[in-house]
Amino acid sequence: MNMIDDFVIKQRKYMPVFPKATGTPTQYIPGYPYEDEHPMPANEIHGVQAHTFFDQIYRYFQVDKNIHVGLDNFIYYREGDTTKVVAPDVYVVLGATQLPLRRSFYTWAEGAVPTVVFEFLSDATARQDEDEKVTVYLQDMGVQEYFIHQPDTERSEVFRGWRCRDPGDIIEIEPDASGALFSEALNLRLQWEYRPGEEIRLLRPYLPDGTPISTSIEMQHLKETAERQAETEVERRLAAETRAAEETARRQHAERVAAEAERIAAEAERVAAEAERIAAEAERRRQVDAAELERLRAELAKR
Fold it and tell me: In this structure, are residues 89 and 124 in contact, taking their beta carbons and an 8 Å threshold?
C-alpha cells in the first residue's frame, strides 16, 4: 500500500461527524456588500500562510460535499444588520454544502454558522484578532473554535486557540508538550513549522496520529513519486519476466539439445548393435561355409 492510499484510509477514519445545515446554500443576497471598497492587500508572508492553510483544509474536506471551507470572504451573522460582519482568513462550516461558491456567507440563510475560524495575524488586525474577535466569534456568532497564529518570524510568536462548550463558556485550548493545539470540532492537530529561507512560521493541519495533510504541491510530488515507483516496479517486473522467459528458453533449448543427444546416442547404439548382429551373422556363415568345405574335402579324400 502506498502513502496516498494509506492517507485516504486514515482520512475516512478521522473525518468528523456532524448534522447537515438546515438552510439553503446562498451565493449572494442583495444589499449585503461582498467586497471592500478599498481592500487592504496582505503581505506575502500572510498570503502564503492563508493560501497554504486553505489549500490543505479545502482539499482535505473535499471528500465530503457537506463541508464548506471559505477563504477571506464576508460572513454576515445577523439578518438585516450589515454591520454584523466578519471576514476571517479561513473558516470551516460543517454541515453547509461545499458548492456553490459564495460571494458572502449568510448564517441565517444557510442555517449554519462557521464551526471553526482561523485568523493569521497582521500588524493591522493583530490586536483585534487576539482580543475582541474571541467574543465576536465564539459568543456573538456561536463558532465552536477559534484559532490565531502569527506567521511572521519578525513578530513575536503567537499561536492560540479557544473553544466554546456552552454559551458564554469560553476556554483557551491548552497546547500539548510539542506546542500543538487540537481541534476537537475538526478532529485535527494544528502545529506550525519553521520554513528556512522563507522566514515564515507555517501553521499546518495534521491527522490525530500526526500524519501531515499535504499541500497541492506536496501531493503532486507524492503522486509523481508513486508513479515513478510504479514505473520502477513495472520495469522490475518486466525485467524479471524477461529473465524468467530467457531462462525458460535456455532450459528448453538445453532440454532439446539433451533430448537430441540422447536420440543420437540411442541411434548410435542401435547402429552398433546392428553392426554386431551383422558381424555375428557373417561369422556364423563363415563357420558354416568352412565346415561345409571341410566336409567336401573329406569326401574327396575318400574317393
Answer: no
Look up residue 132 and give its amino acid: E
Question: Residue 97: which of 29, 25, 15 has the closest Cα?
Answer: 25
CA distance 236 to 222: 20
Q: For the segment 66-119, what is each residue's pLDDT rounded down to a tens digit?
A: 999 999 999 999 999 999 999 999 999 999 999 999 999 999 999 999 999 999
CATH topology of domain 3-214: tt1808, chain A (3.90.1570)
Q: How many CA atoms lie within 13 A of 301 on its CB side?
A: 6
13 closest CA partner among 208, 210, 185: 208
Closest CA to 77 of 109, 50, 55: 109
Question: What amino acid occupies position 158?
Answer: V
Residues 6 or more apart whose CB falls under 8 angstroms from that of 53 comprise 89, 90, 118, 120, 203, 204, 205
